[in-house]
């Protein structure tokens, strides 16, 4: 009887060295010139600063040490940054290095996941893959993920997306482990990882659930009753891993905690279901200042405008190849022996995870009518890398079949054509690169016709050239992204910028600005300055204010006598003053200036009791519904 299932193979020196080299290269890409972005998104940096100084602010994710209001997301990403700031002091590095390390870790976990799936599959086909071939396929998938331009952007930035992606990749690894022997414990760990992702960016973490559930159901070697119980246990673990926090927030009296930013009724449950939940899908987001102007929806949204250059390079290849892997697994279907999965089950598990993740997430992003930013697409990057690796390896191993060679050739050619289209948009030397990639891809696609007749060295060279051509464009865009400073609420990757819905309203890339427009600790920026926007967009609420030395002197004078040295409309404005002064600044109305916090009566009481020193006037964005408290306070 054949032995199926994952078998750990001792890696040789080349395998170990290649993984280490990839991770070192990724670390260099994500860490190089990181301080040029200053505090990046001041909104989250200010929350990390507050959390480092005050444990209550840390627990609730408060924007300021006075605990007036939280950020409009759960606090898990803040927890990591705040602990870093507490240990190493407030600086660009202490804020951004944790994000870069999450990126390196995500790449490593994706590689481990792919290698495990491909090893259990055993490279079966008309031209079976060797153990070394499996290793290089997994490495190529990890590199594809790492070089996706939006991944380079977000692992060099301090939005919650870096931690979210890590938790989702980790959940996929645990699910693959669970499918091998119907491991209930591994599946429960996957639930915990998704639960922690929920504490990072709420319902977006659930977009991978359909793929994980379907993969376990079809690939785990167990009865349907056993699998149903396993899934219920994992669901309970997931709910418990985030439910404790929701209960803690909801059960804490409002007077003993900060206001829940992004909600209209000071409720984290409302935040989950409305502003950060169904409102993103339907567009009915009370308090949003976007006015519904988030770009056109549709099946091509991931390929158009800025999103195209940030993420879409290998989406067609990922879709076709992963689908091919599922077809191959079905044609070679064989159930495992006892509690051990067969190679077919291992292959279909991996293909379903990455293809399902990619399709579900891309469809949601494509048709969501609410707030959409191009950088959200970082959630697609691991799935693209995984689908290309699993699908590419499976189809390549079947290259003895004419259909497989046609798929390989067509995919290689289509990737080159799409890369040319994207690179032509950037102009300049990217045009030359585009035509070069197109030419190499065309030659590689033609050579795929005879791929089954090539010797192993020539076949290896062919697939290496095809992969290299496919990654040349993303690499160029990623290098451009790493060389550009990124600050503000909305940022984009690569040399092609855009407008609302397809890019950054009022500018999302710009040089760092804290005290007098200087980077943190007076360090000069080393990266190319980004394109600064006008007025910060949306009433000036998306990018923080520039803090002059005169204003800074006023804020820091006798600051210990006040709970908040100042109050101003909008979280980004408040964050700028807080980061510059080092003292708590109240954000009236939260991020959009549309939350009813504080009320006019509360604000008047704070002023009367000497808790607020200065009120800094500012513009108020045109919110879609929400409270007009900020305007009332401004008039008062």
What keyword list fits this structure?
636 residues, mainly alpha, 2 domains, 3-stranded parallel beta sheet, 23 helices, 58% helix
User: Judging from the principal axes of the Cα atoms, what is the shape?
Assistant: globular
Strand content: under 5%
Count of DSSP E strands? 3
Our count of helices gives 23
Low-confidence stretches: 499-527, 529-539
Give the biggest sheet.
Answer: 3 strands, parallel
Strand-pairing-aware structural class: mainly alpha
Mean pLDDT: 89
User: What's the number of structural domains?
Assistant: 2
**Quaternary organisation:** single chain
Radius of gyration, Cα only, in angstroms?
25 Å
Helix fraction, binned, reads 55-70%
Secondary-structure element order, N to C:
HHHHHHHHHHHHHHHHHHHHEHEHEH
Description:
- It is a single chain.
- The protein has 636 residues and is an all-alpha fold.
- The protein has two domains: 13-478, no CATH class; 544-635, no CATH class.
- It contains 23 helices and three strands.
- The protein has helices at 13-31, 42-53, 55-60, 76-88, 92-121, 131-147, 149-154, 161-181, 184-201, 209-219, 224-251, 268-282, 305-311, 315-331, 343-367, 381-397, 402-426, 429-447, 456-482, 549-556, 571-581, 600-608, 629-635; strands at residues 564-569, 585-588, 612-616.
- Strands 2-1-3 form a three-stranded parallel sheet, covered by helices on one side.
- Helix 5 (92-121) runs antiparallel to helix 6 (131-147), helix 14 crosses helix 16 (381-397) and helix 15 (343-367) runs antiparallel to helix 16 (381-397).
- The longest helix has 30 residues, at 92-121.
């Amino acid at each position: 009887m054949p032995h199926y299932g994952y078998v750990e193979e001792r890696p040789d020196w080349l395998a170990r060295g290649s993984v280490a080299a990839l991770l070192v290269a990724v670390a260099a890409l994500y860490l190089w010139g990181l301080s040029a972005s200053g505090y990046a998104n001041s909104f989250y940096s200010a929350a990390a600063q507050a959390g480092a100084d005050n444990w209550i602010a840390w627990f609730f994710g408060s924007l300021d040490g006075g605990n007036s209001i939280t950020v409009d997301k759960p606090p898990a990403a803040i927890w990591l940054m705040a602990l870093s700031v507490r240990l190493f002091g407030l600086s660009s590095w202490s804020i951004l290095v944790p994000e870069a390390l999450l990126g390196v870790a995500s790449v490593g976990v994706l590689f481990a996941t792919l290698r495990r799936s491909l090893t259990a599959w055993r490279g079966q086909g008309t031209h079976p893959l060797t153990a070394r071939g499996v290793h290089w396929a997994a490495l190529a998938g990890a590199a594809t993920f790492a070089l996706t331009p939006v991944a380079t952007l977000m692992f060099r930035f301090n939005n919650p997306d870096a931690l979210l992606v890590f938790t989702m990749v980790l959940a996929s690894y645990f699910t693959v482990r669970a499918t091998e022997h119907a491991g209930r414990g591994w599946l429960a760990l996957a639930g915990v990882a998704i639960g922690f992702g929920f504490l990072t960016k709420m319902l977006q973490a659930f977009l991978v659930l359909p793929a994980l559930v379907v993969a376990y159901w079809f690939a785990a070697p167990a009865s349907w009753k056993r699998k149903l119980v396993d899934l219920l246990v994992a669901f309970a673990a997931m709910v418990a891993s985030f439910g404790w926090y929701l209960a803690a927030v909801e059960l804490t009296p409002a007077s003993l905690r900060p206001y829940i930013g992004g909600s209209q009724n000071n409720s984290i449950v409302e935040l989950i279901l409305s502003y950060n939940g169904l409102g993103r899908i339907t567009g009915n987001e009370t308090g949003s200042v976007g006015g519904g102007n988030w770009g056109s929806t549709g099946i091509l949204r991931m390929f158009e405008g800025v999103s195209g250059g940030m993420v879409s390079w290998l989406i067609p290849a990922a879709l076709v190849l992963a689908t091919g892997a599922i077809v191959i697994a079905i044609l070679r279907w064989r159930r495992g022996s006892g509690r051990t999965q067969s190679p077919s089950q291992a292959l279909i598990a991996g293909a379903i995870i990455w293809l399902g993740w990619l399709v579900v997430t891309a469809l949601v992003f494509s048709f969501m009518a609410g707030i959409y930013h191009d950088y959200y697409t970082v959630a697609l990057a691991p799935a693209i890398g995984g689908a290309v690796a699993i699908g590419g390896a499976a189809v390549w191993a079947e290259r003895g079949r004419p259909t497989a060679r046609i798929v390989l050739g067509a995919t290689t050619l289509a990737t080159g054509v799409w890369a040319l289209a994207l690179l032509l948009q950037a102009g300049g030397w990217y045009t030359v690169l585009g035509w070069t990639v197109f030419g190499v891809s065309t030659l590689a696609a033609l050579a795929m016709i005879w791929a089954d007749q090539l010797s192993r060295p020539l076949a290896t060279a062919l697939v290496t050239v095809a992969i290299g051509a496919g990654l040349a464009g993303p690499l160029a865009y990623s290098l451009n992204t790493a060389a550009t400073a990124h600050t503000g609420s909305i940022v984009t990757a690569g040399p092609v910028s855009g407008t609302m819905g397809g890019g950054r309203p009022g500018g999302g890339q710009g040089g760092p600005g804290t005290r007098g427009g200087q980077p943190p600790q007076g360090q000069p920026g080393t990266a190319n300055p980004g394109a600064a926007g006008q007025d910060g967009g949306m009433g000036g609420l998306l990018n923080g204010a520039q803090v002059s030395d005169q204003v800074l002197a006023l804020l820091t004078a006798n600051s210990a006598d006040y709970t908040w040295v100042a109050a101003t409309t909008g979280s980004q404005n408040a964050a700028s003053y807080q980061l510059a002064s080092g003292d708590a600044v109240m954000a009236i109305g939260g991020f959009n200036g549309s939350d009813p916090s504080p009320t006019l009566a509360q604000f008047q009481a704070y002023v009367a009791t000497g808790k607020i020193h200065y009120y800094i006037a500012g513009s108020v964005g045109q919110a879609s519904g929400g409270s007009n408290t900020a305007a009332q306070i401004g008039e008062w």
